[in-house]
Structure formats: C-alpha cells, structure tokens
Amino acid sequence: MRLKTTRQNDRQLFVSVKLAEVCNLACKYCYFFEHDDHSFQGAPVYMSREVVSAAARFLADGARDLGIKTVEVALHGGEPLMIGKDRMREVCDVFADVLSQTTTPRIAVQTNGLLLDDEWIDLFAERGVGIGLSIDGTKADHDLSRIDKKGRGSYDRVIEALRLLQVAQEEGRIPSYGVLAVVAPTANGAETYRHCVDTLKIDNIDFLYPQLDYLTGTAEGASHIDRFYLEVAEEWLKDNNPTIRIRTLEMIFRSLLTDDAAAWRLNYIADTLEGLSIRSNGDVCADDSIPPLDKRFRDEKTSVFSGTLKEFYAQPVWTLLREGLLDFDRQCSECEWLGLCAGGPPENRFDGETFSRSSIYCESYKSLFERIYGYLAQSFATDELRSRLTFARQNLMQLEAC
Ligand code: SF4
Questions:
Q1: What per-residue confidence (pLDDT) applies to 291?
Q2: pLDDT digits (tens, 9 = 90+) for 120-131
Q3: Spacing, Cα 17 to ligand 1 middle (Å)
Q4: What distance in Å separates the CA atoms of residue 132 and residue 178, rounded to the nearest whole number?
Q5: Lowest-confidence segment of 105-114, 131-140, 348-357 by average pLDDT
Q6: 371 ligand 1 Cβ < 6 A
Q7: pLDDT tens sequence across 43-94
C-alpha cells in the first residue's frame, strides 16, 4: 500500500524478528504465548544462525525489489535477550551488514528488562541499536499482568533495568531509550502519567491499546481506555513540556500542525499495515498482531529460505487485509477524523470476518482528536487545522495497493 502523493521515497518496512520463542515472564495478556495460536510449541526456541542470515538476505532483497528505503528491525521474542550476548552481537552485525547493502537499517530491541545489565546496554550502544523497555505504569498495574512463571510481579526488577538505562543516558553511553506501556484494565491515566514522568523520570513513552477486537473486546473495556487516554492527555497538555514525548499524542499534535507531519502520519499508517514478522524457524507472517486473530492469517506463510517479499505481499491474505482496511464503514467514511485515524490499527477492527469496521477504540480516538484539536484551536486558526484534516483525508483516499 502506498501514498501516491508525498514522501514516496521514504517508504519504511517494519519487521518484528522473533529471536527467541521463549520468555522469562508469563504476562497475562501476551498475544503470543497466551492466545489460540500455539505454533510456538513446534518452533525452535532460538533463531539459528542460518535463519538469521537468510532473514537478513530476504529483507535486503525485498527492500531492493520494492524500493524500500528504510527497514526497521525490531528484535523481539518472547524475550530476545534470552538468546545471550554472543549470539545477539552476531545477530545485530548480520542484519546491519546485509541490510545496508540495499537499504538503511534501523535496529531496535524490545525487552522486559529482567536480564538487562550494563554489558547488554553497551553491546547495543556500540551497534547503534535502540532500546525499548516494557513497563506498565505503577507497580500495582504492572504487577497485575506482568508476572513471572511463579506468579510474582516483575516491577521491582524492571525498575532496576530502567535505572541502568537512565544512568547510561546521563553518562552519554546511549542517546536515549523508550518505554512501552500496555494500558492496564485498572489504570488511571493521570496517576499512570504522573508516576511515569514524576516518579520514574521517563520522558519517552507510549501507551499501547490492549489488543482487543470485536470478538474479544467489550464496550466497558474500550470505554476505560477512552477515559485513560484522556486523563493522560490532560496531564501532558498541563505539563506543556516538549521534552516529554508520548508518541501517540505527539503524532496527533504534529499531524494537525504541518502538512508534512500529516503526510508522514499517513505513510506511517500505510507502512505499519504492511509490517511483518519473521518467526524463529524463518516463516514470514503478517505483523505479530494479525496471526492470533484468525487461523487464515497463520496458514499462509512464506519462508525466508524459499520466497520473496514481493511474493509474500501477493498472497490472498494481504488482499483481504488491504481491501478490508480501505473499505471504511459508514461511521469512518463520514468521520471528520478519518485522515488522522484511518479507522485504527487492523487488530482492533477485526469482527471475525473482515477488517471493515471502525476500531473498537473509536470513541477513544474521537475524544483524543477533539481534545487536542480544541487545545490547538486556542492558538492556531481553525481554518488551518481544518484544511490539514481535509489534506490528510484526501491523502488517505489515495492509498493504493503496491
Ligand atoms: S475516529 Fe472512529 S469513526 Fe473516525 S475514523 Fe477513527 S475509527 Fe473511524
């Protein structure tokens, strides 16, 4: 899927590489280990050297064939650090070396922090690998879901990892780090924000919507998220501190302020929809969030050993995804925020058959867009903001299959 209009040369590919199909935590909401898809049971625990090399080649060739300028590799699991430091060094070096032959690689790791130490931090720093840490807000909210195999909360151990990252940043050993937090069912947005910003001193965080669709979600759960994000937004706007980055809010903010950012967001949406995942055995699947939705998305695979990225995108599963995602229901078609929202991520639009419905988090998006629009309207001409919404909508309508 591409935008016909701006920034065609900035196409990015997001790839989640499952280095370890094993984890040292047992988070209750984990879509990989705690869902219907039990394919990890037959997969290698760790990705072999042979698969790593073939995966890097597959992506490099695909980037060249499809004109992809940047490949973002997220080293994932399970828990990717379980692969060990020696293997991780090799993995980072192979992806960087092979991908740089045809594209610009960006490599990042997402960890639960339990194994993180200074040696790990320096290993990633030396290779320019970005580090993301998972912390679900307050101790009570975090420990509700992010438990180990003995049922114990992991908050205290993760905070030790956070402190190591903060010291490394203060000492100039890493430029930055990021935090991802899944919104807990009990969480209060203001309390979570203040805890992260004031107590934990985190300045780069994103709050992730739980992976719910029309089969697994409830109106009550979705309305909790609606409240949560508005509470976060209120605190963030009150702080009015540009050094505190909340990715979701910042994207909305910037998209309303400049045409470039609005176009960038649409490209980001298109690129995200094409995201893929490489399993430890070399199978290539749609982005991690898609296979758990339905068996159809697990059955169609390409292997890094036998297929190409172009062939992968030609599979019927992608037609279903593309058609569904661009076939907006009436609610989305008539929505004034369509250009910024695009109906939301696919995993929250699935109803058991198609992706055509508006997101289960629709009300949350609407209230966030309205709040941030209202905030900006105090300082900027509403004509200007409105014209950007129109621009974003027009760009969205020009998305086409690649
Ligand atoms: S806010 Fe809701 S209705 Fe509007 S585009 Fe997003 S999902 Fe669709």
A1: 80
A2: 999 999 999 999
A3: 31
A4: 5
A5: 348-357
A6: no
A7: 899 999 999 999 999 999 999 999 999 999 999 988 999 999 999 999 999 9
- Give residue 370 CA to ligand 1 midpoint distance, Å: 12
Residues 232, 190: contact at Cβ < 8 Å?
yes
Report the pLDDT value the prediction gives residue 2, as an integer from 0 to 100: 47
Q: Which residues contact 347 (CB under 8 A, 6 or more apart)?
A: 211, 213, 289, 290, 293
pLDDT-derived band of residue 268, with 50, 70 and 90 as boundaries?
confident
Q: What is the pLDDT of residue 10?
A: 74
| 238/236 Cα distance (integer angstroms) | 5
Residue with CA closest to ligand 1 atom 8? 332
111 close to ligand 1 (CB < 6 Angstrom): no
Cβ(392) to ligand 1 under 6 A? no
Q: Is the CB of 332 under 6 A from ligand 1?
A: yes
CA of 334 to the centre of ligand 1 (A): 9
H-run or E-run covering 132: strand 130-134
Q: Is the CB of 222 under 6 A from ligand 1?
A: no
Give a three-class secondary structure readout of 5-38: CCCHHHCEEEEEEECECCCCCCCCCCCCCCCCCC
- Residue 387 has which token pair? 């014209």
Q: In a 3-state reduction of DSSP, which class is residue 264? A: helix
Alpha-carbon distance of 333 to 323, in angstroms, equals 15
Mean pLDDT value of segment 192-221: 91
